[in-house]
Design brief:
The complex is a heterodimer of chains A (162) and B (177). Chain A has 162 residues and is mostly helical. Chain A folds into 3 domains: 33 residues; 70 residues, Cytochrome C biogenesis protein (Helicase, Ruva Protein, domain 3, Orthogonal Bundle); 58 residues. Chain A contains 6 helices and no strands. In chain A, helix 2 packs across helix 3. Chain A is rod-shaped. The N and C termini of chain A lie far apart (126 Å). Chain B starts with a helix and ends with a helix. Chain B is built from 5 helices and 7 strands, in the order H-E-E-E-H-E-H-E-H-E-E-H. Chain B is 39% helix and 19% strand. A 5-stranded mixed beta sheet of chain B has the order 5-4-3-6-7. In chain B, strands 1-2 form a two-stranded antiparallel sheet. Chain B is an alpha/beta fold. Chain B has one domain: Glutaredoxin. Classes of the chains: A mainly alpha (162), B alpha/beta (177). At the A-B interface, helix 3 and helix 4 of A face helix 4 of B.
């Protein structure tokens, strides 16, 4: 009799444990399969730099630190943090360098606009240079004397001899 | 007009570019500025490496200038700074606290038994969460924390005798003064 009772208790306990673990796994699995969360995780991990292997993103790296930070991103997504909050969390700890794509702010504005400034300045200089050259060649053309022009025409007519 | 300016502009440009090279090529890309410099050190409470029933809280260090050295038994570079720490600890009052980072308790203890223990207290960060709070990206790292709990200096990589003599020691002295 005692044996049966023990058995039932044990069975009940195992059953409850199985149910519990099942539900835990189920919620975890649901989160893992949720395409939106997956997408967010991938997006965030590809925007952050792995500081140990500097030209890789956290997404692309297998370094220990990258794994820890991936875990951190996942935990925070599950905790309901927004993307901005998660990136801010990382920047607070590791500095701006952790952003693979630098933020557009007053410190980095030259980084973002610099190439366009160079392009515009270079373009303007080029236009000016071409204009000046064109004017010069026009002047040079005008300065040719009538005698030279006649000679040139004669040469052109005779042309093809050699 | 522009003809006369052009050579100067070119020379100026070359000088600027050389200036950038001179400065930029001497920087070590592995050394990153700490985001936490001149900011309060993250508060933490962690178990003691030698006795996990004891815990160590960063709060208890208020009013002291101290060094937090992040190390691990799997970290090869940690071995190269260790003799210096041992020597400083033997010489006298050296406020060095060790954060055993992402290590196994036994391995950490074994390492200290083998090489000597220069730390006033060794703290155990098994998960590396406190390491993340401190922005640790490569062990060893050493943080200099002042009386108000503000991080005043961060050293990445092993501390050499020169680093100690020329940077850390003077900074500590001025913070204590």
């Amino acid at each position: 009799m005692m044996k049966i009772k023990k058995f039932v208790t044990l069975f009940g306990f195992l059953f409850a444990a199985a149910l519990f673990s099942n539900s835990v796994f189920a919620s975890e699995a649901k989160l893992n399969q949720d395409p939106e969360i997956k997408e967010r995780f991938k997006h965030l991990a590809s925007e952050l730099r792995c500081l140990k292997c500097q030209n890789q993103t956290i997404w692309g790296s297998k370094a220990g630190l990258a794994d820890d930070l991936k875990k951190q991103i996942r935990t925070q997504i599950y905790a309901g943090k927004s993307d901005e909050e998660i990136v801010e969390y990382m920047v607070d700890r590791y500095g701006d360098f952790i952003r693979f794509k630098p933020a557009v702010d007053s410190k980095n504005i030259f980084l973002w606009l610099g190439p366009f400034v160079f392009l515009i300045v270079g373009g303007l200089l080029l236009v000016r240079y071409v204009r000046v050259r064109r004017k010069q060649t026009d002047e040079d053309n005008d300065s040719i004397s009538d005698k030279d022009r006649l000679r040139a025409q004669e040469i052109l007519k005779k042309g093809g001899d050699n | 007009m522009s003809r006369r300016i052009l050579p100067f502009a070119v020379i100026l440009l070359v000088v600027i570019v050389l200036g950038f090279f001179y400065k930029g090529l001497q920087l070590d890309p592995k050394l990153l500025p700490s985001a936490l410099l001149d900011k309060p050190a993250p508060a933490f409470t962690l178990p003691d490496l030698h006795d996990s029933s004891q815990s160590f809280s960063s709060e208890s260090m208020k009013g002291k200038v101290w060094l937090l050295n992040v190390w691990a038994s799997w970290c090869a570079a940690c071995r190269s700074e260790h003799p210096l720490f041992m020597q400083l600890a033997r010489k006298g009052d050296f406020p060095l606290y060790g954060l055993n980072y992402k290590d196994k308790v036994f391995d950490g203890q074994q390492w200290l038994r083998e090489l000597g223990n220069p730390y006033k207290v060794s703290i155990s960060d098994l998960t590396g969460d406190v390491g993340i709070d401190f922005g640790v990206y490569g062990v060893p790292e050493t943080f200099l924390i002042d009386k108000d709990g503000i991080i005043r200096y961060k050293h990445v990589g092993p501390v050499s005798r020169k680093d100690w003599r020329e940077i850390i020691q003077p900074k500590m002295k001025s913070l204590e003064g």
